[in-house]
């Protein structure tokens, strides 16, 4: 496959492959490991994503930042406590299927190789693909196909880490009136915008397909499709110290707002069916 002129293939010192995009509309970086967007910056605007300065891109270990793909389970695998948190998609090397420049938008298609999830945890016939459309906006489409003869159920998230100048100035709009679970408690009703002034690990059930992160210096729009859950996460002081590849003060400059389907919102697919989880984010000029 030949790459458009605006896309180049690079490798980290640890030998992980990535695509660098420098187009008329944006700059971006996508790792084949995890099909993970780690940098996205529309031309003339600030970067939208946070990537840990301690990340050294080890093969088979989750990259801390950008948009990790959690699949086919989110968080811990309840029946199999020894299975890795957030599944296998984020730590597996994906196949690059296609890269195109479509009128300035870069469209990248990746596929998770069959067998990436050990059969003991995932005895199902499935295909997982990621299509990214990178222009003034980043649009990520994670599609799960049931290619077998029996239904299966999965949970998932596009675990976006957004960059913010100061977490104490941040609020998340578009959640008021929805309910969330946190630390195995709730449901609680969200009153007004959500703020982060302590460890936050909330799973919202929210129909509204568009939220805004007011960073204090700009407004990030985060839209979702095929997503009934939304996770808001910041580890704050104590948990930050315990996280891998995460600086002690990293919690001050990031917030995760994750398009998801988890817990009661798990997706069940019949044979032949497809489900697509979509997140789209961009700098918004107003709360449209
Ligand atoms: O450290 P990780 O496995 O990447 O997980 C990071 C975080 O992901 C999600 O946001 C979960 O809700 C958190 O409970 C978890 O701590």
TrEMBL record:
Active site: 159, 258
Reaction equations catalysed: alpha-D-glucose 6-phosphate = beta-D-glucose 6-phosphate
Enzyme class: isomerase
Keywords recorded for this protein, A-Z: Isomerase
Gene Ontology molecular function: carbohydrate binding; glucose-6-phosphate 1-epimerase activity
Cited Gene3D superfamilies: 2.70.98.10
Enzyme Commission number(s): 5.1.3.15
Gene Ontology terms: biological process: carbohydrate metabolic process
InterPro entries assigned: Aldose_1/G6P_1-epimerase, G6P_1-epimerase, Gal_mutarotase_sf_dom, GH-type_carb-bd
Membrane-crossing residue ranges in chain numbering: none
Family to which the UniProt record says this protein belongs: Belongs to the glucose-6-phosphate 1-epimerase family.
PANTHER family recorded: APOSPORY-ASSOCIATED PROTEIN C-RELATED (PTHR11122), GLUCOSE-6-PHOSPHATE 1-EPIMERASE (PTHR11122:SF13)
Protein name, UniProt field: Putative glucose-6-phosphate 1-epimerase
């Amino acid at each position: 496959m030949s790459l458009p002129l605006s896309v180049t293939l690079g490798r980290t010192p640890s030998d992980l492959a990535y695509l660098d995009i420098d187009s008329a509309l944006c700059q971006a970086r996508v790792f084949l490991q995890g099909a993970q967007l780690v940098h996205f910056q529309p031309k003339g605007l600030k970067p939208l994503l946070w990537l840990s300065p301690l990340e050294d891109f080890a093969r088979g270990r989750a990259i801390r930042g950008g948009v990790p793909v959690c699949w086919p389970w989110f968080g811990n695998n309840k029946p199999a406590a020894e299975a890795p948190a957030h599944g296998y998609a984020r730590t597996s090397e994906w196949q690059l299927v296609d890269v195109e420049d479509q009128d300035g938008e870069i469209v990248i298609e990746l596929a998770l190789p069959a067998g990436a999830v050990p059969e003991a945890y995932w005895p199902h016939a499935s295909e997982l693909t990621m299509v990214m459309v990178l222009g003034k906006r980043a649009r990520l489409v994670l599609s799960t196909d049931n290619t077998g003869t029996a239904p299966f159920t999965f949970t998932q998230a596009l675990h976006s880490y957004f960059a913010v100048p100061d977490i104490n100035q941040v609020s998340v709009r578009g959640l008021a009136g929805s309910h969330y679970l946190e630390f195995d408690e709730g449901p609680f009703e969200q009153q007004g915008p959500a703020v982060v002034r302590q460890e936050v690990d909330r799973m919202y059930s929210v129909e509204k397909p568009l939220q805004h992160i007011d960073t204090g210096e700009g407004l990030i729009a985060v839209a979702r499709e095929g997503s009934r859950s939304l996770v808001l996460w910041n580890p704050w002081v104590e948990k930050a110290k315990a996280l891998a590849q995460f600086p002690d003060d990293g919690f001050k400059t990031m917030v995760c707002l994750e398009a998801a389907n988890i817990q009661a919102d798990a997706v069940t697919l019949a044979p032949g069916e497809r489900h697509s989880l979509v997140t789209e984010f961009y700098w918004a000029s107003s709360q449209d």
